[in-house]
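Problem: given the chain below (148 residues), write out its structure.
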Amino acid sequence: MSPSAETIDAQPFQLARTGAPPIRFRGYQILEVTTYRPGGTLWYEAGIYEKAAGGFIADIRFYSKRSSESNIYRVRVLQARTEVSAYFDAHDAADDVPAPQTLEDPDLPPAVRVIRAAALAQRVDEARRAYADLLSEVMEQFSGAVDI
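Solution.
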């Protein structure tokens, strides 16, 4: 059995995942989106791929310039276009912003905890706004992508 022309044209990809080995596959990149802006301290990138063997790969990448925050790479293997949309829609950017352990420290004065909690809330809001921008662009491009 010889490979189809589509399989021959498929490109190799390797996507990093936080806390897991990378995913390798052959396929086609449907879209790549970023919210990076010069001067920003956090941003998102996302990609959607169609696997040559069938199905989709979706990835969400969170980047931070803060040393207290790690970059996060999420990758999901999905079977249908509707699952791809649902995956992006279900993501909560608050999960990407770590809460400082010092918020739990009983020895900290309450005023310091309040200030740190407010800073965390502001950071979560910033992440959610950046992700909302990403989601809007992903959904617009993905819904406009037509199989031929």
